[in-house]
């Protein structure tokens, strides 16, 4: 059975990631796998001994090795404590089908191994240095979004149950995929959905919105549509804030091969500015 995979690092976003995963699990009836990565093991301790006598150098190296071993144990203890807290949050939310894993390895290797079984991948907007650089996104976020083949749900700092969803729609392949995914997923059943296109008013733009609306209606989702002028990130960000949307769905990339190497600029701006979860589609 396909899983919800959530990566947590013990940052201030970790609780929100677990609460969001619990909400998704309740909506789509899927098991949750929570993973905390320790990074690569086995790195040799740095040579801090300098040019000193052999006896002293050997003693220092032994001491450094002991400290490195103790540090590794502390990091592992911290990782298990993070996962125990995550499991407790899931239990309080009533999610029974949960597994946790403390894993030694690299993020993208883990993603590649696990995402075939994933329906959606959850990660926080920022990591353990969240309070040091509020305008910066987490260093792992773009790596995950760029590499993932499955939808990525970027979790906000705080979670609240979702009742209103905004779909940022530009008519491109990833936006069309977002609408198609939304139409087929029980995640959005019964929610209020607004499909928004930002840009020039044209017959093509209006027709694309009607097509998206029709696709959703065929799946039993009654969505409103809106065509608004202006800059996409500014207009959409203000709309989310002013009208109280609790989730945004959008494509993650531009259309060209070069643009596919980075997250689209509008997407990046939306992730930075929005205080709600964003579901990103490729």
TrEMBL record:
Domain UspA residues, every copy: 2-155, 163-282
Signal peptide span: none
Cited InterPro entries: Universal_stress_UspA (IPR006015), UspA (IPR006016)
Alphabetized Pfam families for the sequence: Usp
CDD domains: USP-like (cd00293)
Family per similarity comment: Belongs to the universal stress protein A family.
Protein name per UniProt: Universal stress protein UspA
Organism field: Rhodobacter xanthinilyticus
Lineage: Bacteria, Pseudomonadati, Pseudomonadota, Alphaproteobacteria, Rhodobacterales
């Amino acid at each position: 059975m396909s899983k919800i995979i959530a990566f947590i690092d013990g940052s201030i976003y970790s609780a929100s990631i677990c609460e969001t995963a619990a909400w998704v699990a309740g909506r789509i009836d899927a098991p949750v796998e929570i993973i905390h990565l320790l990074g690569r093991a086995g790195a040799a301790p740095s040579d801090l001994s300098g040019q000193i006598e052999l006896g002293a150098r050997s003693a220092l190296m032994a001491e450094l090795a002991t400290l490195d071993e103790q540090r590794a144990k502390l990091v592992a203890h911290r990782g298990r404590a993070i996962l125990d807290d995550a499991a407790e949050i899931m239990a309080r939310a009533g999610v029974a089908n949960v597994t946790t894993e403390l894993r030694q390895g690299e993020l993208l290797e883990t993603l590649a191994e696990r995402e075939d079984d994933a329906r959606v991948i959850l990660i926080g907007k920022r990591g353990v240095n969240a309070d040091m650089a509020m305008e910066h996104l987490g260093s792992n976020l773009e790596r995950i979004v760029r590499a993932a083949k499955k939808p990525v749900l970027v979790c906000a700092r705080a979670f609240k149950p979702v009742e209103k969803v905004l779909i940022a729609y530009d008519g491109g392949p990833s936006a069309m995929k977002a609408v198609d995914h939304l139409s087929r997923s029980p995640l959005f059943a019964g929610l209020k959905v607004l499909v928004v296109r930002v840009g020039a008013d044209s017959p093509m733009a209006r027709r694309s919105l009607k097509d998206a609306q029709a696709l959703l209606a065929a799946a039993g989702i009654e969505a409103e549509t809106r065509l608004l002028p202006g800059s996409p990130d500014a207009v959409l960000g203000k709309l989310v804030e002013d009208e109280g949307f609790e989730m945004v769905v959008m494509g993650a990339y531009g259309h060209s091969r070069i643009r596919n190497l980075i997250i689209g600029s509008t997407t990046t701006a939306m992730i930075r500015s929005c205080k709600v979860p964003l579901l990103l589609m490729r």
